[in-house]
Every structure is written in C-alpha cells, then in structure tokens.
Amino acid sequence: MDRSVEERYQAASRTLRLPFVRIYGVLFMLVALAYSIANPLFLHAHDAAFLAILLGSVLLLAGAYVAVTFWSGYIKQPALDFAALLGISLLVGLVNIVLLAELIELDDDLHAVGAINRLAITAFAAVALAGRPRLFLLWLALECVVFLATVMAIQDHDAGLWYAILSYVSGALVMIAINFAIDRSSRAAFALSEELEVERAKSEELVFNMLPPAAVERIRDGRMVADSYADASVIFIDMVGFTKLAQRVSPGHLVELLNAFFNHADRCAAKHGVEKVKTIGDAYLAIAGGNQSVGNSADVAIAFAQDVLAGVAALQPVAGTEVGLRVGIHSGPVVGGVIGATRMAYDYWGETVNMAARLEGCAPVNGIAISESTWLRAKGRAAFGPPHSELLKGVGETCVYHSVPHAPALPDINWVA
After folding, report:
1. SS3 call for 117
2. What residues have CB less than 8 Å from 124, skipping those under 6 apart?
3. What is the DSSP letter of 310?
4. How much is the pTM?
5. What is the pLDDT at residue 82?
6. Residue 32 has pLDDT above 80, yes or no
7. Rg of the Cα trace of the chain?
8. Rounded Cα gap, residues 47 and 53, in angstroms
9. What per-residue confidence (pLDDT) applies to 161?
10. Which element (helix H / strand E) includes 384?
C-alpha cells in the first residue's frame, strides 16, 4: 500500500536473494555444460553439433545473467530476470525438441529421462522473481507456451500430450506456491525488521539523550569512559524561591513549571552548542567546551545564560507568581565520565563544577555571576561591572563579576512545549 515501503522491501529482499540467484545460475550452467559433454557420446554428429550451439548459447546467456547481477542497478531491474530466464527457457525448449527426437529415434524409452528438466528453470524463476508474483505468473504463462510448443512438436498421441500438460501444470502449481511462500515469508521478515529498526532507533535516541555518542561506543566495547577537559565553562542555573513556591502550588503545577523552565533551557543549549549535563531539583547544570567542542567556552556559556534569562518574563504566567533565576559560571579544567552500571549518565566533576555552584548563590536575581577565570577568557565583558570580593563557602574570598539583572518580556517564548 505504501510505495516507498514497497520499494525498500523489494530492494532488501532482492539483495538478500542475490547470492542464491548467482548460485542457481552457476548450477544451471553446470547442467548445460554436462549436457554439452554427454551429447557427443550418444547422439548423431549433426544433432550433437546443433545442440552444442544451442547449449553454448544457454551457457552464454546464463553467464551474462549471472554477470549482470554484479551491476549496481540490477536490484531495481526485475525485468532482467524476466528476460534472461525467458530466453533460457526458449533455448532449453529448442534443445529438448532436438534431444527428444534424437533419443526417441535411439530408443523410445529414453525420452522420459533424456530431456533437460524444465522445472529447474521454473524453480530458478520462482526464486529470482519472488516478491513480484504478477511478473512471475506472466513469465510462467509465456514459459507454458514454450513448453507446449516443445511437447506438440514431438508428441503425436493425445494421451502423451495430456499427461505432459498434467505433469507441467502440477509442477507449475508447486512453483507458484514456492514463489508465494518466499514472498510472504520475506514480507513478514521485512516487516519485523522494520519494526525492530524503529524500536532500535528509539532506544538509540534515548541512549544518546543520556550519553554522548563517543561514550556509548566505548561502553559497548567494554571500555572505561573517562575524559579530561583542560578549558571548559560550567554553567549552574537555579530558580529563586523554589522551596517556598513548592509549598504553595500543586504537584502538577510544580512539574509544569519545571518542565517549562528545563525545556526552554534545553532549546537554548541546542542553539548555542552547550551540553546539558543534568538537572538537580530545580537547578540546571550545563557545560560549554566538554563533549561538544566550541570556540571560546566562556563567551558561549555567557551567551547561553543570557538567552535563558531572556525568557524569565514569559515564565511568570506559567508559575502564577514572580519567579527569578540565578546563574553562576566558572571556567577551568574538568573531568568527565560514566560511572556505575545502572541508570548511567555522563557526568562532570572537579573544582570548576563546585565553583560554578558557589557562584550561582551570590548572583543577583535574574543575573549572572562569573569568576575572574571566566571574565579573563571572555571577550564580551560589557554586561559585567567591576569585580566584587565575595566570601564563597568552602572557597574563601573570591573575585566575582556580576551582570545586571536581565528579564525583558518575551511573550513569544513557548515554555510549555
């Protein structure tokens, strides 16, 4: 019913049958060669010479047919099978007319076993044209005409003609059943393969949402995932007053708010080439310059943070109350990797991550706090004022730069999507 799916099925099934078609072709060539060797031993010279020409033509046509299967465009051309096998059938019909007449003259009992069995060609066609039942039935009808011409040329008794027809029809019905069975089983296998591929793609997407592609490959190979990044910028974003808000709103409303915030942050991360690391409660942890390479990690991190803060005004209607964000950014070396065997995720560790979390705590509402390390790396410093000395927990007196609060109204931002 779906043309594109049918085309994929035909290409896949013909590709899988290709080795068998080639083997079948080679086997048929060996049969023709065996007849070419045997004929001069038992037949008159003039008939043997004529049969040698016909069998040579069969060998050439079968060889050309096998050769054309190596052409890249063969898969899309079932007409090649149709024409080649019909030509072989016609040549074999001529061979059998001469051969049967010669064998009847030698001994009337030999004609039953001496001719080339046409079912070998029909079976060949049943396999080669599987998946194209109408084309196979058309081929079979034309092949039947060739067969009747062969039989009528040598049979002068009605009984012989009728028994020959019955023999051919019974064999043809079996070959139709084989063709149909191959087609049905191939279609069922293809449908299952398509379903498995869809599920595999979904699984791959879920895995790559949690882990970087390079990490996935190493995990599959059984290797440890541990990386070091000399110059990265860690971004820590937290929602102001979330604990009190969680006490006032319903669980569904709270999840809707967090989903809106994280979805917006995800879109900003994709826009700037920033890697989302994880969410921790109402906090969003991201990194610039980790698995996803960027130019200046400090500038990218600041641009990402500003983009996230630019949507704060649109978050107010979703929250139903005033909501603000704080951002902390610190640049320096980090270590990344995957630990554990269940619910794996690629995480980052080091003083740079801890420092970014501490800086977030001293950032103004809807503003950004960056370390001196980030400030020195950044080219776009216009949004940051003079340095402040801040006492950070576990760090001590630290030089910090603050940006002015940034929360313009952006009604077109879709937080919920």
Report:
1. coil
2. 24, 25, 28, 85
3. T
4. 0.58
5. 93
6. yes
7. 38
8. 10
9. 72
10. strand 384-392
The residues, any chain, with a CB within 8 Å of residue 122's CB and separated by 6 or more, are 140, 143, 171, 172, 175
Q: Which residues pair with 368 in a beta bridge?
A: 327
Query: Strand, helix or coil at 330?
Result: strand
The secondary structure of the chain in percent helix, strand, coil, rounded to multiples of 5, reads 60, 15, 20
Q: What is the pLDDT of residues 183-196, one digit of tens each?
A: 888 888 888 888 88
Enumerate long-range contacts of 8-12, CB under 8 Å, 24 or more apart. 8/190, 9/131, 9/186, 9/187, 9/190, 10/75, 10/76, 10/78, 10/131, 10/132, 11/75, 11/76, 12/190, 12/193
Q: Where are the alpha helices (DSSP H) in 43-77?
A: 45-68
* pLDDT digits 0-9 by tens, 312-348: 877 777 666 677 899 999 999 999 988 877 777 888 9
> What is the β-pairing status of strands 226-240 and 283-288?
antiparallel
Place of tokens 């991201």: 286
Backbone angles phi and psi of 53, in degrees to 5: -65, -45
For 256-270, b where at least 16 C-beta lie within 10 A, e where not — what string? Answer: bbbebbbebbebbbe
Please enumerate in sequence order all residues whose Cβ is within 8 A of that of 194, keeping only pairs 6 or more positions apart, or say none.
5
Amino acid at 37: I
Q: For residue 57, what pLDDT is reported?
A: 93
As a residue count, the chain comes to 417
Q: Of 73, 100, 59, 75, whose CA–CA distance to 21 is shortest? A: 75
116-161 per-position pLDDT tens digit = 777 888 888 998 898 888 999 999 898 888 887 777 766 666 676 7
Euclidean distance between CA atoms 33 and 154, whole angstroms: 24
DSSP 274: P
> What H or E segment, with its residue span, contains residue 401?
strand 396-403
In the chain, what's the furthest Cα-to-Cα distance? 116
Nearest CA-CA partner of 325 in 407, 404, 400 = 407
- Cβ within 8 Å of residue 135, ≥6 positions away: 78, 82, 129
